[in-house]
Write a structure and sequence with these properties.
Layout (H helix, E strand, L loop, with lengths): L2 H8 L3 H9 L6 E2 L5 E2 L4 H13 L4 H7 L5 H4 L9 H29 L4
Antiparallel strand pairs: 1-2
């Protein structure tokens, strides 16, 4: 399928699809005319990319995670290949730290407003 059809089927803009390809997250073949051509599995791959982005992962982390998230395991979990669990645990710890920092800032601002 061409990029326009993939965009329509996934709700993801063509620009983002090209970005995913540039980041090594999505594979496309090139026809003789230079147009990108995606396999039927691209719809599911884009869905997994969007899910992982919504979970707060960067495209760099997703590049490491995506090979471990295949069609058979996506609905039931992740195949914990390599050091994936440690990578995601590190991402979770960083997110927890950012949340703690935001809570501290909120508390400070509330105090300034007399809303302690």
């Amino acid at each position: 399928m061409l990029i326009g059809e993939l965009s329509r089927r996934t709700g993801v803009s063509r620009r983002l699809l090209r970005y995913y390809e540039d980041q090594g997250l999505l594979q496309a073949a090139r026809g003789q005319n230079g147009y990108r051509s995606y396999g039927e599995d691209a719809v599911a791959v884009v869905g997994r990319i969007r899910f992982l982005l919504d979970a707060g992962l960067t495209t760099e982390v997703i590049q490491a995670v995506l090979p471990c998230v295949d069609q058979d395991t996506f609905d039931t979990g992740i195949d914990w290949c390599g050091e994936l669990r440690d990578l995601l645990a590190g991402e979770l710890a960083a997110l927890d730290e950012r949340l703690n920092c935001l809570q501290e800032r909120r508390t400070s601002l509330a105090c300034l407003l007399g809303q302690s």
